Structures are given as structure tokens and as C-alpha cells.
Amino acid sequence: MPDDTVSPTGWGRIAPAAARLPRSLLVLGGTSEIALATARRLIARRTRTVWLAGRLSPALDRAAEQLRGLGAQVRTVAFDALDPASHESALGKVFTDGDIDMVLLAFGTLGDQAHDERSPQAAVRVAQTNYTGAVSSGLVCAGALQNQGHGCLVVLSSVAGERARRADFIYGSSKAGLDTFAQGLGDALYGTGAHVMVVRPGFVRTRATAALPGAPLATTPEAVATAVELGLRRRAETVWVPGRLRVVMSVLRHLPRAVFRRLPV
Question: Which of 126, 129, 135, 136 is nearest to 87 (CA)?
Fold first, then answer.
């Protein structure tokens, strides 16, 4: 389909691929390594204004300074995924300051499966952060994008949500809920000018996963950032990182449970 034509998928008029990259970016989870790698890549392409939303801390300030050094105008905003009551007012201030072309929902916690199984409150905290906090902030941002009539909500999901594994079913279940929510939200926004892109990375090598054993098809924050950029250019709805995981998970998803249970995954 040539650029500057009307899309048959219902998104309306399509801009040239480069113009689909955002000039303004709001990051929910402003100290996330994946989010910052994505922000760096987008600043190198087109992004000029960045909001980093997260708990106010020296780490958030350092992240902002790093991005300012790349030439972007960067501001921080206090945001706590575990305080949904504050999301509308905190994030609403960002949108009243000007249109936001892209929201990157990148916060989350891995938890500790062995510990969390013995501590229901810790398990609930994982669920509240990864799912409840995302539902609340995602709806606030989606409503603002819809009111603008344009913009993309990029949601960092995980292949862990594709099928429950003994090793991480608490985290995986929270990501499964997030993924389903994001898909449904994308359908709700269809035809409004705003849309949702779900990103499903495999194991990402970051500081948070440094103590964990590696996994097949492991990836990096920079590789996820590259995939996000490509997805934005294509106006994709779902992005797998690496792309081969789409086939792998299609197979694993349909294995009989008794077989899947014995796999070293």
C-alpha cells in the first residue's frame, strides 16, 4: 500500500512511514531499561519531547539527564503504578500540556516466584503492578489519545503471558491479563485515529534479569527498541521480539498440557 493513502484497515489516512514515528513520547516506567533504549532510538529518529513518568528518584533524574544529552526536551512526572487513584490527575497534566504522539507502557515487576508463592501479599503486588496499574493508566492514556484523534499506546507485554509455566506463573498470569486487556483496548480504539501496539519480548537481558538463568532466543533492550520502531513504521498491532518467537509460541501454546509440563521451559 503506498504512503499517504487511505488504509483499508480502518485507521484512516496513513502518513509516510517515517512520519509515523512520534515527535512526543510519554514513558510510563521512566527508569525501565527497555523504555530508555526505545526513547534513545526514537530521539535519534524524530522524537523531540519526552515525559518520563515514574516514582521521583535520583534514577529518574539520571534517566532524564541522559536523554537531554541526546537533544530532547525531557520532563519528569510523579507516577506510581500502585496508586490508580492518582493516575488520572498525574497523567492528565501531561496531556493538557500538549498532544502526545506515543505512550510507552513499560513499567512492571518480575517478582520472585518461589518467594511469592509463599507470600500471597507479594504475589498480589506483582498482579497489582503489572495488571491493575496498567489497566488504570492504560485507560487514562487511551482516552486522552482518542480525544486527540491520534497517537499510539505501545504496551510491553511478554511471551510469559502466552502460556502458564511452573517457573513464573504469577508473573506470567499478570502479563496474560495485560496482553488480553491491551488487545481488547486496541479493538475499542479501532477507527478513532488512536491505536494500540502490543510488544511481546522473550527473555530480555537487563539488570533485573541478571541473576536469572538465560533462555533460548534471549534478547536485549536495544533489540526490543529496534522492533518497536519497525512496528511503529508498519503501524503494527502485535510485535514479537525476536520475530521467531511467534512460531515457537504458536507451537508451545497448542502442546498437550502433559507434554508441555515436562519441557525445560
Answer: 136
CA distance 62 to 57: 9
In terms of C-beta distances under 8 Å and separation of at least 24 residues, what long-range contacts does 209-212 make, across chains too?
209/110
**Are the C-beta atoms of residues 56 and 78 closer than 8 Å to each other?**
yes
Instruction: Provide the residue type at 19 as one letter.
Output: A
171 an active-site residue? yes
- C-alpha cell recorded at residue 58: 535520583
Predicted model pTM: 0.90
Choose the catalytic residue: 51, 171, 181, 240. 171
d(CA 194, CA 185): 10
122-133: burial string, b at 16+ Cβ within 10 Å, e else: ebeebbbbbbbb
Beta carbons of 165 and 215 less than 8 angstroms apart: no
User: Mean pLDDT, 10 residues at a time, over the chain (265 residues)?
Assistant: 32 59 98 97 97 98 98 98 98 95 97 96 98 98 97 97 92 98 98 97 84 79 97 97 91 86 79
